[in-house]
Amino acid sequence: MEESKTIENYTKYRWFFTSSGKLVVGGKNAQQNEELINKLKTNAKYVVMHTKSPGSPFSIILHPNPSKTDMDETAVFTGSFSREWRTGKKATLVDIFLMEQIIKKPNMKIGTFGVIDSIDHRPVDLRLYLTKQKGILRAVPFEVKNTISIVPGKVKKEDFAEQIAVKMDIPVKEVIEAIPTGTSDFFISIKTTKKKTVKKNK
Question: So what's the pLDDT on residue 51?
């Protein structure tokens, strides 16, 4: 079954497909984080990520056996859509754990959870690439050939979105929905392959 079938209306959350095609979803706010954990808590072995500091999505890989690449990409996604981007940081630390480790105590606020047992930590650089997935603009955490790369910067989100919309010839609203909150800068990312040099005898 396609991972997107395991949760209805996944496009209302933060989401992207990893380079291997696995769906990752995360909350846009505390209410959505709470909703996602409650909806998916029966999937005990799903990997969940959150920045070590407060203010990020609870990002969930909707697949029981993600690869190291899936994990790396999800960690970058989690950090990039966190408060760290909004404050202009270039890197952050992401916590990694399983759904079955998450606990909720009665006195905890909406969108706040505890984690029991060991937690893995992964440092990540904050950089995303703009591309279409399922026909919708996404800011994905892996390099895409000949596209725009975005990083925390100095241009306000609305102004930044207008610049990107002109360059990519798409609606401003679609860009705003795709990119992190806060200020950003962008670069044209050109992915090339190195040509082999063949030595010829004279």
Answer: 97
Q: What are phi and psi of 4, to 5 degrees?
A: -65, -15
Q: What is the mean pLDDT of residues 144-172?
A: 95
C-alpha dihedral, 61 to 111 to 10 to 93, nearest 10°: -40
Burial (CB count <10 Å: 0-12, 13-18, 19+), residue 93: middle
Spatial distance between the Cα atoms of 97 and 146, rounded to a whole number of angstroms: 34
Is the pLDDT at 195 greater than 80? The verdict is no
Dig out the tokens for 97 from the structure.
């754990």
Task: State pLDDT tens for residues 144-154.
Answer: 988 999 999 99
Q: How far apart are CA 132 and CA 111, in angstroms?
A: 29
* Each residue's pLDDT tens digit, 69-105: 999 999 999 999 999 999 999 999 999 999 999 999 9
Cα distance between residue 20 and residue 187, in whole Å: 25
141 three-class SS: coil
Residue 170's Cα: distance from chain center in Å?
Answer: 21
Q: Which of 171, 184, 72, 193 is nearest to 125 (CA)?
A: 72
Cβ 158 vs Cβ 128: under 8 Å: no
What distance in Å separates the CA atoms of residue 75 and residue 127, rounded to the nearest whole number?
Answer: 11
Neighbours of 137 (CB within 10 A): 20
Q: What is the pTM of this model?
A: 0.90
Domain ranges of the chain: 3-125, 128-189
